[in-house]
């Protein structure tokens, strides 16, 4: 009902963080290119194996002075995995406590998502490039409600024979074979690339393996192969950047790169410990929580003020952050995240199961750790109060986001200048199916 909506609105209005004046609008009018790095964790960045970098190209971006990167950025997905990441990044609402929001509510819910906002307020053309079938995670229906104008799914590419692995077209081919479609998009465009090759079980044909790269020898095949497919993904991104430069798109674009969620699960993290220079014997819940960091980088060519920010944040915060870089105000929308560049950004990062991380404390499975040392925290009464306050905030934001989505409350909300999206306006079939 409307009063339930009012409750949500009151909460997100109070949370709202005003933009950082120095960065607001620095990418105004540029194309937005989003690169979704499948199952890609932050520990891969700057990681060396046998003194060789696993992801040399992404590392160079991470340290570039035109990149605004984050070192304490966490994924916040639940069972919806990739689809939860997509939902958080493009709507700034959480996925559901169980299941995938895309799969269960995505066909019918009202969304006020990035593609709709950008098309309506700044004339963007919007599209997704993905080498898997359109129906996976119910994308073919959900993307219409998000207002994506184009969805170039597997049917648009040759995925025969060794051109694909389990989840679709290999990443290098996705970037290369999508150019002919990308070049037809009217600028400015908002284009999202969802990669797949670095997905469990991390399989790669020998022809795609770099003969100069040797991986770990942990004895855990997933861990060892993860570095191989991550290395391949790094090369794929490098090749795509070469195309962007050559075509001239590069300097007129902002390229946002993120990892969607973990690739190595908690039960396997012990096998990673030695690679990370840690002991597997004392590996604990805190270590697992810290490994939920994923990359977030905004590459804004020519701006030269980039750096690595140590701010704590998560996927829920991306949409207001991106919109502010594009010079689009967000105060009027219902968003559960806040601009990561804002001095008012709240550094309490909720996991979907109500655990959380802040710069000071990490709460996992009922235990509070000191985030900087990893030791179990000995809290004064005052600190205990603060932790309880943070926990209440986390519980409340997840609850209100669930209420918004489960009751489809956005259908009652009508932000200034927003035209409701009609799924029937979109048709993704390419005539070849
Ligand atoms: C497949 C892909 C994988 O289309 O996006 O999703 P995931 O299994 O990571 O949720
Ligand atoms: Mn995924």
TrEMBL record:
Q: Which UniProt keywords apply?
A: Cell membrane, Membrane, Transmembrane, Transmembrane helix
Q: Which pathway does the UniProt entry assign to this protein?
A: Cell wall biogenesis; lipoteichoic acid biosynthesis
Residue ranges annotated for the Sulfatase N-terminal domain, each copy included: 30-328
In terms of superkingdom, the source organism counts as Bacteria
Identify the main location.
membrane
Compartments (UniProt record): Cell membrane
List each coiled-coil range: none
* The keyword Hydrolase is annotated on this UniProt entry: no
Bilayer topology reads:
Multi-pass membrane protein
Family, as annotated: Belongs to the LTA synthase family.
According to UniProt, the name of this protein is: LTA synthase family protein
